[in-house]
Batch of 3 targets.
Target 1
Amino acid sequence: MATQSSRIAARLMVAPSVILLFVWMIVPLALTLWYSFRIYRLLSPERSGWAGFQHYAWFLNSPDFWLAISNTLLLVGGVLAITVILGILVALLIDQPVWGQGPLRILVISPFFVMPPVAASIWENLFMHPQNGMFASFAQGLGFQPILFLESYPMSSVIFIVSWEWLPFAALIFLTALQSLSSEQMEAAEMDGAGAMSRFRYIVMPHMTRSITVVILIQTIFLLGIFGEIYTTTQGGPGSASTTLPYMIFKQAVIAKDIGRAAAGGIIAVILANIVAFFLMRSMGKNLDA
Amino acid sequence: MGKITLHDVRKNFGATEVIPGIDLTIENGEFVVFVGPSGCGKSTLLRLIAGLEDTSGGVISIDGVDATALPPAKRGLAMVFQSYALYPHMTVRKNIMFPLKMAGMEIGEATRRADAAARVLNLTNYMERKPGQLSGGQRQRVAIGRAIVREPAAFLFDEPLSNLDAALRVNMRQEITELHQSLKTTMIYVTHDQVEAMTMADKIVVLNAGRIEQVGSPLELYNQPKNTFVAGFIGSPKMNLITGPEAEKLGAATIGVRPEHLDVVSEGGWSGIVGLSEHLGSDTFLKVTTDIVGTLNVRAGGEVRLRHGDRVNLIPQAGKVHRFGADGKAMA
């Protein structure tokens, strides 16, 4: 890439993919933006025309909106906290030389291969179900009333299920980070008089910051859009207790069949994602520099 | 103080016996080099002394205290690793101060010691840099700095120069030797390079397959090798080891002649044809294929004008022939 002509050639070569990706991104965004200012209801197609900011106003004035925003952030934050902390502990555990290490690691990773609605159904029906669930039978065996997980603690239950799905991903990334830590560094720290806790704090944790950052960034992208687990289990309820922004948009698009309103919600979701991304990159972006 | 005594120290990895039993005394203030071919157990022995590996048997004592079961941090030893093992996320200053911080030393005293170490090692201008921004030689010095601030009973070096280029290696070799002169602390140095061993050591320990072949000063090993292994390992170019009728004439199974102890003469002796000839100016290294004793390394003067294909006659200097018995041991 040294000469002028090779630089121009390189730009020409990558141009088709860049243009394709740009169109791929900009067309749906532009359409969504367009619909968000239009009256577009599938149940009354005869009504059309400009809506102005009324869809946005509807969202901002909706009593569920701020709850949905806070639920979305709670879901992202809760799952991140659980998966990062437990992920580090699990990674430390399965990094130890034990008998059957290979199968053990596959077992630890396997929840990640279960599709989200399937995972949610398994948890709902086999574990959290008040009559048939394993937790209920434990509770009854100990003489307690079964806990109505999805009714009494809907958000916590959803966070728990999503964390179960994402824990293997975090643990896997952290495990590879642990394995790339040079053993001589650990031995040097040992010779320098650092105990196990000091080695973890001063050697292991700084070594892991980059992979922790990667896990947080990747998971945030996926967690902001979590939908299947809520749809399968609580359907956003009871009431609106477990409604998140994506679920609220789904209700407007598929249940109310109001495309204009749903599009406005989509744009709000894009803005929210950008705000989250901005703060994440500001606080952690420097960890990604080499 | 730093007197280290090994008594019948053994190490097995599973069923493999790496060190079958070693007795060795390292006196306070000595510069001891463990040398041997790769896989001879020299690094394992160093790690046993450091406490990074558990012994399978025997006793290691440091300054008269049984240290066999002590964890590495409690032995009062500092180690410099082959890869330097610097902490990449800490600045040079923090790297050097890390052992002091772990020892709970008060920050002022720790800073003072780190600065002193930096002055000795010419690192003063690099204290706020990260290891990634340093050259190989500077990283090496940081690793040494991290070792000296602790004022350990002994330093352990595990092939510390093998990642440096040739010129820097010679430099660092001298710096480490000078450091030993000024600190007068016991140093144990592992290398596979017999030149490093010869130039740095007060005492060389030649290891082969986990056994000590010979212990002695560099010149002792050079002049009186106890067996054919030491004879062949110490010295560059290698000593010529000759077996067969020529050795039997002197009543030995093997005779050894160093390259510099072969004289090029006009007639008599062993006749042969020059193969390779390397003219270094000060010396000329010849590889001569002789008619009766195989290929010999010869170190001749710089003014020798022999070329590939020339016929020469070689005679070993009187009294410079080493004789070894059938068991490989030197004969009186």
Target 2
Amino acid sequence: MNPPSGAPPIDSLMEHAPALYGFAYARLRDHHLAQDLVQDALVAAWKSWSTYQGGSPLLTWLTGILRHKILDHHRTSSRRPNLSSAPDGENLATHDDLFNEHGDWAIDPNHGMQALMQSPAKAAQNADLRKWIALCMEKLPPRLHLLFTAREVDDLPVPEAAKLAGVTEGSAAVMLTRARQALRLCLQENLIR
Amino acid sequence: MDERLTVRERMRRRFHFFACSVCRGFQKQMLSLTALVRMSVSSREAEQPDPEFLLAVRRELTRVAGDPDKDDPHHSS
């Protein structure tokens, strides 16, 4: 392999390393894994610099490479035996029996949830809610967490989020519903405690 | 929340929500949940990496820049 023509100054790549690390850590919740994948992504960026068109900001391009590294990691790890009993959150306590057999509400889902029923902006500023959501998100299994953040935070369409998390589109839809229900139920349990 | 609704489905939902206060409350919860999740993830994104890690990455990039063929499996010497 020849060095890419007009190789980027290493400083230009390193300038974005902290942001890339933050991106990876927020999604993977594992310092060492985030570090490994950021390093891999930056080395890959250096090697494929000639493909960077310059049409988008450098950080956007680098983040795209990092996303692929995360996807590759999940593809590889999904082929390994998984010791977790519920890798995709299959056993999450999500079924709070919202609906009865007629499709009517079986419980009052809004009980104790007034803080969450303000405007989203107000809820996001509520310190208690922020504390609880951080704790509740910790309970999501890694793959479900990755899928959920890809969809809810990065606004990726379901097919792309599914690809990133290494699951089928059909599974992704079920998993996303499961994640929302798990988080809502977890918040409710903590708020009415 | 993940599938695009048809016009007919959107209309049905609108009428249903008009009559269902529990549903309106539930929808507010879902919107707030998304805002909270975004806030939570963006606060994690502010996490700063270990300076040692940054030095290690710089060293690795310098090494690759100095000898880009070294770890290229397709390279034949």
Target 3
Amino acid sequence: MISRFGYIINLLKALERNVLHSFGHPPRELAIVQIYERQSSNPPKKFSIKDIIGDGMLLAVPKFRRTIEKRWKRKFGSPEYVWKMLVPKTNIKVCQDCGHHHERGRLCGNCYNRVESETKEIQAKIQEKLGLNPIEKDVIVLYEGENVPEMPNEFWEGKRIIEMKKERPQWFSKNLLQKSTQQPSSSKDVKPTDLA
Amino acid sequence: MNQAQVTKLVSKLRIKVAPEPRRLRNPKGPEGRLDKLRKTVTGLIKFERIELNFNRADEARQYAERLISEAIVHGDCHKPTMEIADYWLLEKELIHKLFKVLVPRYENCNTAFTKMYRAPRPLYSRNIEKAVLELRGNPYPSLINKQYSNRHLIQNVLLDAAKYDYRQAKYAEMADKIGKTENQELNKLSKKDEITTE
């Protein structure tokens, strides 16, 4: 039954081919193929960033990767300008007076602190003693238990004595090489007799 | 050339002066810079020892040196010098100090009138160069003790003498020891000789 049906279809096809061929049409195998494209009704949307972020916002982010040179420069600095690596200092000296360390060409921190506090005390004392008087005399600082050094009267002319109410600090010694003018001795020279 | 030498009209400073003045930053410009320096010079003359930023200290030092040397050269009866002193010293009682205290102090001085040291730099802090500026011959304890290496300083003389004594004593001891050992050896040798002869 099926084979007969198929035979009939083939017959019909052959008949169709012969009839159409007689009208000058090319055979069906050589016919021009026409491709139909369904055009979509709404055209595609253009890409926009708003589709992604919606109501949110964007932060600024680097666009390009930094080069390795720049990253190293940031990390380690530059030896000519700012060198960030840990480098041993070679300009450290030992203070000859107190034994602390300090930079070469600079005052020793320990000694300077000591001197600074003492200086400020003396300065305050001088200002307090001076008051509103005119500054016309040089200053001499005396500590507790110190007597006015015996000097000729000329030395004391135009000097202002400031007394500190404490003992002289050990490290603030008086100048050992200070020049001291001696008073002429009261002993009378006696000429030797009976020499010859 | 009948022209006076300019170098002899201006007092020569005993410190190193930079060829160009520092343009210290100030919102008022050069005028403000001078105001600041006047304050500093006044403070230096008043307190005789101050600590401040290095650049300002170095700049103020030059003006202070110039002021003192002018005062020494011309004295207090010279009108232009008095005007300079009036300009640079904001507290007017310091003008008296300049002419009555500092001029006699530095009259016979053949070095600079001021001293400047670099102040110790604190660790782990902003790196500001500080300086200590002081007048010579101030009554405060000295900032540096340079005399430890002076051979003629009394401590060094005493130490040298003590070292010398110690060394002499040691030499004498050593000489004694050597003498004793030699005597003992001689004694031993003579004993041996006696034994062999027997």
